[in-house]
Each structure stands twice: as structure tokens, then as C-alpha cells.
Amino acid sequence: MRRLCLTAIDQSSTSIGFGAAASLLAPASISPIQQLIKLLPPNHSYSTAAATATAAASPVAEPVFQDVSSLPPLTLAEHTLQGQFRDVEVPLYDLHKQPIGNFILDGDIFDVPIRRDILHRVVRWQLARRQQGTHKTKTRSEVRGGGRKPWNQKGSGRARQGTIRAPQWRGGGVAHGPVPRTHEHDLQKRVRRLGLKCALSAKAWERRVIVVDSLRPADFKTKTMDGHVAALLNGAARRSVLMVDSDKDGLDGGENLRLGIANLPWVDILPSVGVNVYSLLQRDYLVITKDAVESLVGRLRRPIKPCSITP
Q1: CB contact burial 33-54 (16+ within 10 A = b; e otherwise)
Q2: Percent of the chain residues past pLDDT 90, beyond the cut
Q3: 70-118 pLDDT per residue, tens
Q4: 150 and 294 both lie in a single domain
Q5: In terms of C-beta density within 10 A (0-12 exposed, 13-18 middle, 19 or more buried), how is residue 154 classed?
Q6: Residue 63 included in any domain
Q7: What is the spatial distance between Cα 181 and Cα 159, in angstroms, rounded to a whole number?
Q8: Residue 166's domain spans which residues?
Q9: 144 and 274 in one domain?
Q10: What are phi and psi of 40, to 5 degrees?
Q11: More confident site: 194 or 8
Q12: Residues 167, 248: one domain?
């Protein structure tokens, strides 16, 4: 029976021929329409019937990337597509939320594609760096006492023991317990810089970046600063805000600013050199001075120095 089946298979294979078998095994050619579909961006609707005539006549063109550096800045109403590296024009306010002009947010800082994986890596790096790492437990050799053998090795009928400070004893040492160490790990500077750009772009895309000319209040009363914050946020229910001034010593916002927000738990204040991803993601709104924006842009555009490796 097996010999008959093999004979039938041989006869069928010879009758097909090598040319037909090769045509069956060869992959189907990709049509120009399918090549065009591969070049289309995701999440876009299109009609294959309208493009059939033009695709059959014209060859497949390579995608053209437009230089956006020479384009005019977008307004907030025109800023509908995120991650295009386009400059965005936003209103410039005073501390009472009165418009006094316009300000341009640079597209290479405030309109980069938002990478959640980069934000996650940077936040983990920040939290690991600030862990204290002073956890410590005593081992069996560090616990006081337990120097003698509790009973004889043989003859008592009990399990042999060498010390009462072994891990299985109450009051004994801890086996494989935590020891003082640092939880810090390395993260490339370019990744940290990209994470800060992503966090700033997320705030700008959510319309939660408020640019002011100055953060210096008239006095240091908490009630005054609370009124300024409510005016800047248009009475929003969630008034969680991060304020950023330009000077590391607080000369831009002044001492009155720091005294005024001391009793406002939903308001943080940082200099421009201290802006970080974790602080940006913790708060809902970003209130930043125009001088702080310029300082921040200069900091993020500064070339990264290569590491000098000495033999």
C-alpha cells in the first residue's frame, strides 16, 4: 500500500512540471497600491478607489520631510498635531493674568514627540538617585551574645545547634538581609535631556504652560499668592502648579515669592537649573517666566561634552 502511494505522488509531481511548481512557490508581486499604503501614516483614512488611477500611472515616490525651521510659529488654535518640532506662539501674561504680548516656545524643546518609555526611565533614575540606601540588618555574627553552644552535640535528643543567634532562633541574626548600598544607576545625558523635552512638550500640548514676564509679588502674604495662582489658572479646580523662575538664587521671583507659597502645599517653586522630569509630571500646570524659558532652552541646546577616557 505504501509503495502504491509513493508511486502516485511521483507521477503527480512529474506531471506538474518544474515551471508550475516554481510559480506556485514564488511570492506574489506587491502592487503599487500596496506600496503606497505602506507609506501612508497610521491612523489615517484613505480610499483605494480614488488612488487606483494615479498609482498605476505614477511610480512610488519616496516620503519628503519638510524643513520646519523656516515655517512661521503656530498659534494655540493651529497647534493640533503633536510632535512636529514647530514653534508655538503663546500669550505672555503678567502675574494678574493680563496679556501683555506674545511669546514663542521653541519647537525643538516644546514640541517633540512624547516618549512614555523615556519618561519612565528618567523618573526611575531620579527616584533611585534620591533613595537613601541606609537599610541594614544584623547578621548572626553581629548580634550580641550567643557565643557558647546551647547544648551538647549528642545525647540530648534535640536538634544540634551551635549558637542561639542563628537565623532560625528568635532574636537571632538575619540571613541575607539588606545592607547599606546605593540604588543609583547610570543614565545617558542624551536620554535625560530627551526626557525633559518630552515632559515640557506634554505640558505644552495639554495647554498647561503659562508664560509670565515676572513672578515677583507685591508682598509676601499667602493670601496674595493664592489669589495670583487662582488668577493664573482661571480658577481651575485642581490648582497643582510648578513655578519656575530664572535665577538659581531666587532673585527673579524674589524672597516674597518663596515666603508667599510656603503654606501652599499645591505649589512648588524651582529655579530654571532645577527643572526636572519628576517635578514636571507631579504638577498639573507649569508657570514659568520668559527669562526662565530662555535659560532652559540654552541649557537643553548646550552640546553634550563627550566623556574623556584616560588609559
Answers
A1: eeebeeeeeeeeeeeeeeeeee
A2: 54
A3: 778 888 777 778 888 999 999 999 988 899 999 999 999 999 999 999 9
A4: no
A5: exposed
A6: no
A7: 36
A8: 138-177
A9: no
A10: -70, 145
A11: 194
A12: no
AA identity, residue 90: V
| Polymer length of the chain | 311
Using left for φ > 0, alpha for ψ between -120 and 50, and beta otherwise, residue 127 falls in alpha
| Residue whose grid cell is 495639554 | 206
Please check whether residues 293 and 146 belong to one and the same domain: no
Give residue-wise pLDDT tens across range 13-40: 444 444 444 444 444 556 655 665 566 5
CA distances from 80 to 49, 113, 203 (A): 29, 13, 14
For the CA atoms of 226, 227, 232, 233, the dihedral, rounded to the nearest 10 degrees, stands at 70
What tens digit of pLDDT does each residue of 279-293 get?
999 999 999 999 999
Q: Which three cell numbers stand for residue 81?
A: 498635531
Q: How far apart are CA 75 and CA 90, in angstroms?
A: 7
What's the pLDDT score for residue 92? Answer: 95
pLDDT at 6 over 60: no
HEC secondary structure over the chain: CHHHHHHHHHHHHHHHCHHHHHHHHCCCCCCHHHHHHHHCCCCCCCCHHHHHHHHHHCCCCCCCCCCCCCCCCEECCCCCCCCCCCCEEEEEECCCCCEEEEEEECHHHHCCCCCHHHHHHHHHHHHHHCCCCCCCCCCCCCCCCCCCCCCCCCCCCCCCCCCCCCCCCCCCCCCCCCCCCCCCCCCCHHHHHHHHHHHHHHHHHCCCEEEECCCCCCCCCHHHHHHHHHHHCCCCCCCCEEEEECCCCCCCCHHHHHHHCCCCCCEEEEEHHHCCHHHHHHCCEEEEEHHHHHHHHHHHHCCCCCCCCCC
